[in-house]
Backbone:
DNA sequence: CGCGAGCTTGATGCCGATCAATGCATGTGG
DNA sequence: CCACATGCATTGATCGGCATCAAGCTCGCG
């Protein structure tokens, strides 16, 4: 009955003390706009931080749901699988983003969360999150906003999967990534992909060959500079156009 | 600053008194498993019921978010649109289901909700929902479950859009519809579609002609009996197989 | 240095989009 | 009551984008 799944190694107490109060992600994560007092209460709730090795799962479909997780460092993917082996990547999560919200509905997780690089997460026991969000309207509000944002995100993904062509999907994907990276202080014109072509494809509803071809096409057209997973965006406008003026 | 958008006509107070306590949907809707006391408090919150005419919108993308809505009777679709005119249906909602959760994230709605037939909704002011769910853990829990369920639903839709072929998509769609209708006391082997072929297509990422052809194919194969929007399911198994043993 | 995972690129084929015509049900006005 | 319009659905013919199959390439690593 611990809130720490098998693959999450607790970070030793003697390591540098990490708290929500001193976390540089606090303006992106759960405690957006919190007072000092609220931050301190949150620190009592997020008792555990843990690390997950690249390739390991934070949780799996079917696991009992006990906590949601905030990514502190690293990068994750979430995926759902069918019995017959196919799977669909449902999202990529980076620092400050929440994982595990799917578990609330049935008290069991319904997707897998896999670390794409060595990562650290903050473990937020759901029972305590419920309790504390009854006391702090700000926390309640922010938590609801995060769930709602996830719903809105899926609307965008549906539009992408339902009506965009391969190049448009990849363009939208890249713009979304850079936008989120930019909010975390990274360049908006260059990025390193943490996932394979196949994982991108499985997210975008395309085969890996198609993803690869699109990258090549973008390079030919002078829109991107692609060197394996190193991507430089040369023509931001062009990507934007592809997404907007569809067709 | 009213919680009642333009297209929602309040139902007269002198009409038959509708309350959560006496609503036959209470075991499907927000107050699942509530005590009588909780039901009565909920009744004070859901002050307004309203009706929406077929074709009218309950809310539109950009509208300020003030309330979520529970469908009492009727049928809705939600959709997101792009500047260039394409749109994507993101869901179909029937009695007992909640609309408007997308609005929490930015305090504005990010999709349109359109009535596919004359409908009635319960207006649940969000501020009061927040307040009351601080007082009633059961309500808080149920509300979170509903949002989480929506997230899980989108995982399924992504799988559908990302990896299924036309017939599989339609099969999954029909099974989902009948399942929900069954939970509401309707037959699981026959249904009347409330939406056009085009609306189905826009939900499933297909063109209306493809949807039509799939219906015809299912009829040829003896799986369905199709007469306009009247659908009889002759071979439930066959549909199930298409969805599971993909390929 | 050689292996293997991941990526690129080419050739071919199929599924579903597109274009187009017709059918069918409902509604409206002469 | 019929003529016509309108919205929705069906069906056919053709086309194109992406999947599939296959071969070779690149880079990191034991």
Residues:
């Amino acid at each position: 009955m611990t809130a720490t799944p098998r693959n999450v190694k607790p970070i030793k107490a003697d390591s540098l003390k990490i708290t929500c109060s001193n976390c540089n992600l606090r303006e992106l994560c759960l405690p957006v706009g919190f007072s000092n007092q609220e931050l301190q209460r949150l620190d009592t709730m997020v008792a555990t931080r843990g690390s997950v090795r690249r390739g390991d799962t934070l949780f799996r479909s079917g696991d009992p749901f006990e906590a949601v997780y905030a990514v502190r460092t690293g990068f994750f993917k979430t995926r759902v699988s069918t019995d017959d082996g196919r799977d669909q990547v449902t999202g990529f999560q980076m620092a400050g983003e929440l994982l595990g919200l799917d578990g609330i509905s049935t008290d069991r997780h319904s997707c897998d969360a896999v670390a794409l690089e060595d990562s650290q997460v903050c473990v937020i026991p759901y029972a305590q999150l419920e309790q504390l969000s009854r006391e702090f309207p700000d926390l309640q509000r922010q938590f609801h906003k995060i769930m709602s944002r996830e719903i809105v995100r899926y609307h965008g993904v549906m539009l992408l999967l339902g009506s965009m062509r391969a190049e448009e999907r990849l363009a939208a994907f890249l713009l979304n990534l850079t936008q989120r990276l930019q909010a975390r202080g990274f360049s908006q014109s260059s990025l390193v992909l943490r996932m394979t072509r196949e994982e991108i494809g499985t997210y975008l509803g395309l085969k890996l060959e198609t993803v690869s071809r699109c990258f090549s096409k973008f390079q030919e057209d002078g829109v991107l500079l692609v060197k394996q997973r190193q991507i430089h965006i040369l023509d931001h406008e062009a990507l934007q156009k592809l997404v907007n003026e569809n067709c």
Remarks:
- Chain A touches chain B through 47 residues (CB under 8 Å).
- Residues 9-158 of chain A form a domain with the Jelly Rolls fold (CATH 2.60.120.10).
- The longest strand of chain A covers residues 67-81.
